[in-house]
Amino acid sequence: GRIQDIADNLLNEVERKSSLNLVVDYSFPLPIIVISEMLGIPKEDQAKFRIWSHAVIAYPETPEEIRETEKQLSEFITYLQYLVDNKRKEPKEDLVSALILAENEGHKLSARELYSMIMLLIVAGHETTVNLITNTVLALLENPD
Question: What is the pTM of this model?
């Protein structure tokens, strides 16, 4: 299926390189591409999600870290507003459009609920999968038997 195609394409790209950074080359892009496609996020916007997903789970301590995290979260929310507005105008076959369609059929989500649900899907599906892939490969390398 589509996920296998994405995984194969990422591995094909790695084969062309002389080295592998598992997180950068595979663990991070695989789930973000899959989730982005499910949600209908354009490919050119996907790279921003690493910064934004880290901002959602960050624990900033210094005033500078707090300001930077707030800036990133504000950018994320602005992007989600833009995405939802575009999907309202031109719905596609994706999850964000389906959530908006459900809203139009009487299952009203507030804007905040809609943005929160999209944010949850991106962050929960992304961060956990990156860690799962990376730790699984590490465990296999440390325990080849």
Answer: 0.83
**pLDDT, tens digit, for every residue of 62-121?**
999 999 999 999 999 999 999 999 999 999 999 999 988 886 666 777 888 888 888 888
Determine the Cα–Cα distance for residues 139 and 114; give it in Å rounded to an integer: 37
Strand, coil or helix: what is 49?
A: helix
- Positive or negative CA dihedral for 47, 53, 54, 55? positive
For the record, the structure tokens of 134 come out as 């990376």
Residue found under tokens 């730790």? 135
Tokens found for residue 58:
């960050």
> What is the Cα–Cα distance from 8 to 2, expressed in whole angstroms?
10
What is the domain count for the chain? 1
CATH number at 15 reads 1.10.630.10
> Residue 89, Cβ neighbours under 10 Å: how many?
7
Q: Which domain holds residue 10?
A: 2-142
